[in-house]
Specification:
This protein is α+β, with helices and mostly antiparallel strands. It contains three helices and four strands.
């Protein structure tokens, strides 16, 4: 499954982005069954979108406990299943 995590918060510059990416790699490494795939930015908005590979939704929630959104930021996620997961 893939979790698409939206975070409504501005990343000011590449230094802040690199710090965030290091943090994401560190925290996803701490939870077996979750991987950081990539980050994208929504055109015209102060919003980033993380693509995470997850063994289960529980693994995502476990990761979210150690990697919550920044203070004051709004976040939400979408869970996408592969065809195998959807029809199993």
């Amino acid at each position: 499954m893939v979790v698409i995590k939206h975070v409504e918060d501005e990343i000011a510059d590449t230094t802040e982005l690199e710090s965030l990416l290091m943090h994401l790699r560190k925290t996803t490494f701490q939870v077996e069954g979750i991987t950081y795939n990539d980050i994208y930015f929504v055109k015209g908005k102060k919003e980033s979108v993380l693509f995470l590979g997850c063994k289960s939704e529980d693994k995502y929630l476990e990761w979210r406990e150690i990697c919550p959104p920044p203070p004051g930021a709004k976040d939400w996620c979408e869970v996408l299943f592969t065809k195998h997961e959807h029809f199993s």
